[in-house]
Amino acid sequence: MALLEFYGNQCPHCIQMKPVVEQLESELGVTVDKYEVWENEEHAEMMKQYDDGMCGGVPFFINTETKETICGSTDFESLKKWARAK
Question: Domains in the chain: how many in total?
Fold first, then answer.
């Protein structure tokens, strides 16, 4: 299973999510693979493949095992539920 986050360096919502993602990784012992898409064209193309028109913006989270996504900012409990989905 891979937990992915697509973000933009200057995105205020992405900046807001950074400590929430760090808390998730620490408490659950998981890794969220992070890909910057505003300045990295390769990562932007990768996001398009996963997003497929569902979100269109950042932050965009996808659990590659369940295909569960989160578009935009969210709270810790919602992020934890997303990460634990089977």
Answer: 1
